[in-house]
Amino acid sequence: MNEHQNTALDLAASRIPVLPLRAGKVPFGNCRRCTDNACGGRPNMKTPGPCTCPGPCHAWAAATTDPDVICSGVWHRAWVRAAAVAYHPGGAGLTVVDLDNADAVTWARENLPATQTVPTTRGEHWLYLGAMQSANAVRPGVDIKSTMAYARWLGFGTGTMTALPDAVRALAASKPAPIRPGLPTATVPAPAGGGECRHRTPAFLERGIAMAEQRITGASEAVHTTVYRTFLAVLSTHGRCGCLTDGHVARLFAAAQTKGETARHCTDAWTNARTRLGL
User: Fold this and answer.
1) How far is CA 230 from the centre of its chain?
2) pTM (two decimals)
3) What are phi and psi of 143, to 5 degrees?
4) DSSP of 93-137
């Protein structure tokens, strides 16, 4: 058992979900079950796909507090090769304000409540008690890492952790919305004789889309996984009959975005689902 694995076990005992990082602060690559992102994960594996494999290959979603998992054969081999330990702040009920340079640190000292502070290579991590949606580049040199994100473990730092302030939440809320990429086309090859859904009624399609929206908005965890699997289910039923429209896709994307998914995540999940089905 090496230093990284020991650190991981100590953090897990404090209910902080952990995962190993390889060089470059990147999670370990796809396991055999996830080859070529068959599970829906993104190529750099910073965003998880909907798989249940035991390997530490799916970023923040792989983070765990289970010592049996941390000490399992697959994870032990990862710890041997790991360059660092990471943790899922949101899973521990925390938010990290990642200040990437001296100017960002100066700004934080002038605008944010003092809290527990951890030195980093180029700046500081400010830790607050409370989880929120993660957001990158909320201002120059400032990222917010909480739910659906991971941060490198660099020690406990100094100072007393304070409650997540409205000033930090406002940073994510006021961030300009990213330019929404064009929706992936929802027009698929229609069967001979027209593009209508011949095996289902329009009411069935409407009910299916409504149920898909409810499934996404009702997800309390594993949102990215739920979105991908919901897209897969919709496409498997209606993807080849030509009945889906851009309006239907927009409804599904909107439901996903209300749960914190970005437009890019939605596009990736939809594209991966189409690829999985050969559409």
Assistant:
1) 16
2) 0.61
3) -120, 155
4) TEEEEEE-SHHHHHHHHHHS---EEEE-SSSEEEEEES--B-EEE
